[in-house]
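Section 4.2 – Deliverable D4.2 (structural model, holo form)

The reporting period included a commitment to supply a predicted holo structure for the target in complex with magnesium ion. Inputs used:
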Amino acid sequence: ENNLLEVDKLQVAFRTDKGEVVSVDEVTFQLKQGETIGIVGESGCGKSVTSLSIMRLLGRTGLIKKGAISFNGRELTQLEEAQMREIRGNEISMIFQEPMTSLNPVFSIGNQMLELIHLHMKMSKSEARAYAIEMLKKVGIPRAEQIIDEYPHKLSGGMRQRVMIAMALSCKPRLLIADEPTTALDVTIQAQILELMKKLRQESQTAIMIISHDLGIIAEMADKVLVMYAGQVVEEADVFTLFDDPKHPYTVGLMESIPHLEHDSQQKLFSIPGTVPHLHAMPKGCRFHQRCQHATEQCVTQKPPLLTIQGSNGHRVRCWLYQEEEQVVSGYGQNEV
Ligand code: SF4
Ligand code: MG
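Output (structure tokens):
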């Protein structure tokens, strides 16, 4: 079992005016070199916080409370900021929907790309420039030979996003974290970017963590999928099993809310009645019980553990409906709660 990334019982909290709130709880998953994991769930479910924890970019109010994040044999939660800086952008790259580490307005696109490429790819100046232009073309930037000398404010938001993607991919990271990478882009460019990510995976065995509310993208890209709800993993399965045989009532709801093809693509997503519970007021028992049509008394009072479906290949679900199916030998489930 050669995992590139192992996240183990991760718990992340944020300090707020009303005290500390746990936003990610007991999140566990593994990712091998060259493998793609998809993370789905409504906004606020902890998808982005999970990825920001791996990058150690939680800001001043965020804190990893428990758990471990092992990357390529190193424990990221223990590293100094300087060591983390070497890993970021080199071994682990991240693409955000709204780039947090946005482009520096003072330097031209080329300047910023060349610095990065020169630093990490060991190329001469002219090689680096040719490579940067090639990467800009690959993300669908027209007139890349001219654009490379422009300053960021001259570009549209969509173009800046593509420059950010070109930068993230140009260093051939071992792990690429893509958080809603193409949400702001039009369909053609979106398809181009996804193709580029697939190519990178094929050529460089890059592991990819793709976070999206778009199940179509998840189905197209992911080998396995985590479904998150209210800060927890509620289901995990390989992509075929998840789409074929979803178990958790929340996942079933997500599947049913997939819009039919291209019509009203965004609107119908997540039409499960009710809303995600607030972090300050997490319900007892199952966190989904207020929205679940199968909820029983047990669901209201007892937290369901993540159970492994018997006879499956690592299909896990956090739901009392499957307590009979618990695979006792897995060590994941608990017999008593
Ligand atoms: Fe629904 Fe109960 Fe399963 Fe929660 S544990 S998803 S409330 S059936
Ligand atoms: Mg997010």
